[in-house]
Every structure is written in C-alpha cells, then in structure tokens.
C-alpha cells in the first residue's frame, strides 16, 4: 500500500526541497499529497498547487497540522525542511499530533530541545528520523557492513572531512543566503560545524558503529568580522577506542562539496568520497588496492538493497535520500503490520543521532573557546 507524504519548507528555489521530492517519489512508496512549502503563505500555496497538492497546499505548517489531523487519509510521514531554528517547534508539534517525522539536520538548536524530541518520540511511539542523507549511499552502507563484519579488524583511526569553499568571498558578507549562517541569533553557537561538520561526525559514527564520547576543537573565523567559525579541526575519541580526526571548512576555495570518510583498522583501510560515491577504495593490509563499484556482485545485503541502477551508471545524492525514504516506508509498514523490520533497511538516522550531533555542536563551541580543552561530547541523557 502506498503511503501519504507531506513536506514543510522546501519551497520553490530552495536548496534541499527538490532532493526530498525526488527521493520520496522514487520507489513509488510515497505519494506527495500535502505541503506548507514556503514562509510566504501565498507563494507556498501557489507552488504546492503547481506540484499537484490541490487543497492540501497549505499556507503554513499550523494550518497543515490542523488540516491533516482532521483527515482519514492523513499523511503518514512529514518532512521538515525549513531553516534550522524552526525544526524543533515544527517537529515537536507533528510528533505530538501523532505523525511520523523526518527532520532536516540540525534537528534542534540546543541539547535540551534534542533531549525533549528524543523523549517525545519514545513517549508517542512515533518515528523521528533525521536526514543525514549521505548515509543512504549504497557504498557507505557497504563500508559500514564491512567494518561491522571485521574486514578491517579493530578500527584504529577515522578521518572525516566536510570542507567546501563556498563562503570564502568576503564580498558575500551581506548575501542573505550566507549572512544568517554566521549570525549567532539565527545560527546558534556554531556555523560551519553545525552546518557541515555534523554530517562528517555522524558519518564517522555510522560507518564505525561507535559513538563520539569526547572532543577537542580548534575553531577559527578565517574571514574578518565573522562571529562564528568558518573552519574547524576537531579531534575526538569514540566509544570502542577509535581515534577521530575531522576537518570542516567553508573557506576551502576549490573544494566543492567535500565530504569524505576514511577508516583505518588493524588489517585494512577504506576511503569514500561523496563526489565519487560509486566507488569505495579498499586497501587490505599487504595486498593491492581494490576499487569496489556500487552495484557489482557480492556486496552486502544493505548495499544491494540501496542500489537501483545497473553497475557502471552513476547514482547520486537524490538516490541516497531515496534510501532514507525507503527505510522509512519499510519502518512505517512494519509497525502497521506488527512485524519486525528488514534489518537491511533499519539504517535511517534517528532522533538520538540528531541529539548526539547537537551535544557535539555545543562541545565544539565550548572547546574552541577554551583553547581546545577536551570536553565530554555526549548528551546528558546518554552519559
Ligand atoms: P533554503 O533557504 O534554500 O530553503 C528553505 C525553504 O523553507 C524556503 O522555501 C522557505 O520559504 C521555506 N520556509 C522557511 N520557513 C518556513 C516556514 N516557517 N514554513 C514553511 N516553509 C518555510 O534552505 P535549504 O538550504 O533548503 O535548507 C533547509 C534545511 O535543510 C536546513 O535546515 C539545512 O540545514 C538543511 N539541509 C540539509 C542538507 C542535507 O544534506 N541533509 C543539505 C542542505 C540543507
């Protein structure tokens, strides 16, 4: 049975809206039936109607919550793809209304709000997922499976990067798409780490299966006048002893997207880059380099399940998002049918991950101010 899906934010011209619509629509699991897509009510309604939402194109999210709650064919899942400072209020309201939610990152602005969302998801029994969408890539999932089954032995070192150069021009200071990101009133305690660094840190946890426990950060604002950081180097330690290194930057001119992850264990190393997501580089100790291709034979069930196009043709970011949606469709159906979920699909990032990221964001800001002091990066509720 097809599921009903709605979206808040992701209006015309937004950065991330189209990737969600492509991802949710790809496998025929979800019908896009409702939305409050824009902060300008009329523009949101107009765009929603053009996308086929009819009278379920709402002017704002409160109207949508009320309208959907009253329907028999209410949405099964809502995606929250608005700017960061609104995530908490909207996610909270929809969980309380009994809806499953996929929230964009960062899930909240504070650790306390993150704990409240985790608590609420547990209390209501609703799914609250967080869109660390890059974990949907087939070869990221294969990397995780290889590490879990011991192909690298014990993990020694993880190196994660998310460094781009798109905020490097001082002439952009007043550009509305850039300015808010470095304004503490709108962005909170961190800019680049909260925007991109958390993807890299979550990826380090996702592939190794270890949580970040403590960290030390060196943060800088490379452009004069910026209050929040545009470059950070973070050292961290993980729950099963892995050592983590993370560099994130928005002033790395020449770098485009820049998310990469490398894991080094006792008996091998792995390297994957978001800009070449169809190849995973595997170096077994003392042997020759192997290039693992997405879609080839002999990959893990997790990788097979999240791969659609024949080997040799590139799959990109909207298809990674589609895998998060496919996991969520399976999770919603399994709950409805009262059956266990397919373990190869049980990989979508949870509210707990969003909370851990928020604790890391605040630890990075505090450590950066304290000259790199080592700080507990775990949220209080997981200590
Ligand atoms: P954007 O500024 O390009 O678009 C935001 C959209 O939300 C606009 O259409 C705006 O009109 C709408 N909006 C704002 N307030 C609203 C409200 N109260 N109700 C309904 N609609 C509202 O922003 P962008 O870059 O698309 O980012 C949105 C979120 O997605 C952010 O939290 C960002 O961190 C996250 N993001 C996640 C990525 C990922 O890889 N997971 C990548 C890019 C962004």
What does this entry look like structurally?
By secondary structure, this protein is α/β, with parallel strands linked by helices. Helix content is 35%, strand content 22%. The protein is built from twelve helices and 14 strands. It has helices at 17-25, 41-50, 61-69, 87-96, 111-124, 138-148, 176-179, 184-187, 192-208, 301-305, 317-337, 351-369; strands at residues 3-9, 30-36, 77-81, 100-103, 128-130, 155-163, 212-220, 231-238, 243-249, 259-265, 268-273, 279-284, 290-293, 375-376. A nine-stranded mixed sheet has the order 13-12-11-10-6-9-8-7-14. A five-stranded parallel sheet has the order 2-1-3-4-5, with helices on both faces. α1 crosses α11 (317-337), α4 packs parallel to α5 (111-124) and α9 (192-208) packs across α12. 1,4-dihydronicotinamide adenine dinucleotide binds next to β1.
Question: What is the structure about, briefly put?
Answer:
By secondary structure, the protein is an alpha/beta fold. The chain has helices spanning 17-25, 41-50, 61-69, 87-96, 111-124, 138-148, 176-179, 184-187, 192-208, 301-305, 317-337, 351-369, and strands at residues 3-9, 30-36, 77-81, 100-103, 128-130, 155-163, 212-220, 231-238, 243-249, 259-265, 268-273, 279-284, 290-293, 375-376.
Features:
383 residues, alpha/beta, 5-stranded parallel sheet, binds 1,4-dihydronicotinamide adenine dinucleotide
SSE blueprint and pairings:
Layout: E1 3-9, H1 17-25, E2 30-36, H2 41-50, H3 61-69, E3 77-81, H4 87-96, E4 100-103, H5 111-124, E5 128-130, H6 138-148, E6 155-163, H7 176-179, H8 184-187, H9 192-208, E7 212-220, E8 231-238, E9 243-249, E10 259-265, E11 268-273, E12 279-284, E13 290-293, H10 301-305, H11 317-337, H12 351-369, E14 375-376
Parallel strand pairs: 1-2, 1-3, 3-4, 4-5, 6-9
Antiparallel strand pairs: 6-10, 7-8, 7-14, 8-9, 10-11, 11-12, 12-13
The protein binds 1,4-dihydronicotinamide adenine dinucleotide.
């Amino acid at each position: 049975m097809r599921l009903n899906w709605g979206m808040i934010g992701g209006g015309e011209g937004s950065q991330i809206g189209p990737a969600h619509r492509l991802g949710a629509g790809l496998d025929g699991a979800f019908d896009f039936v409702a939305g409050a897509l824009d902060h300008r009510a009329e523009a949101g309604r107009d765009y929603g109607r053009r996308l086929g939402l009819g009278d379920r194109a709402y002017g704002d999210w409160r109207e949508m919550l009320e309208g959907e709650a009253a329907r028999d064919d209410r949405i099964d899942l809502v995606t929250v793809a608005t700017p960061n400072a609104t995530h908490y209020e909207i996610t909270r309201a929809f969980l309380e209304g009994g809806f499953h939610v996929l929230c964009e990152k960062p899930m909240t602005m504070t650790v306390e709000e993150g704990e409240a969302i985790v608590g609420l998801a547990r209390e209501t029994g609703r799914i609250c997922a967080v869109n660390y969408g890059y974990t949907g890539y087939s070869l990221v999932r294969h990397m995780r499976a290889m590490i879990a089954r011991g192909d690298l032995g014990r993990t020694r070192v993880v190196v994660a990067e998310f460094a781009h150069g798109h905020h490097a021009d001082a002439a952009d200071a007043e550009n509305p798409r850039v300015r808010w990101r470095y304004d503490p009133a709108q962005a909170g305690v961190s800019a680049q780490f909260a925007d991109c660094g958390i993807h890299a840190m979550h990826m380090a946890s996702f592939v190794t299966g270890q949580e970040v426990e403590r960290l030390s950060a060196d943060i800088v604002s490379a452009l004069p006048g910026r209050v929040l950081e545009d470059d950070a180097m973070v050292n961290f330690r993980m729950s099963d002893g892995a050592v983590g290194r993370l560099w994130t930057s928005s002033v790395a001119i020449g770098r485009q997207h820049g998310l990469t992850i490398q894991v080094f264990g006792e008996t091998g190393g792995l390297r994957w880059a978001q800009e070449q997501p169809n190849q995973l580089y595997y170096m077994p100790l003392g042997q020759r380099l192997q290039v693992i291709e997405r879609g080839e034979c002999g990959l893990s069930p997790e990788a097979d399940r999240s791969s659609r196009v024949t080997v040799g043709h590139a799959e990109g970011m909207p298809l990674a998002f589609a895998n998060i949606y496919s996991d969520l469709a399976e999770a919603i159906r399994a709950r409805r049918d009262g059956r266990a979920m397919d373990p190869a699909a049980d990989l979508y990032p949870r509210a707990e991950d969003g909370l851990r990221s928020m604790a890391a964001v605040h630890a990075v800001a505090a450590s950066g101010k304290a000259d790199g002091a080592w700080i507990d990066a775990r949220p209080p509720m997981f200590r």
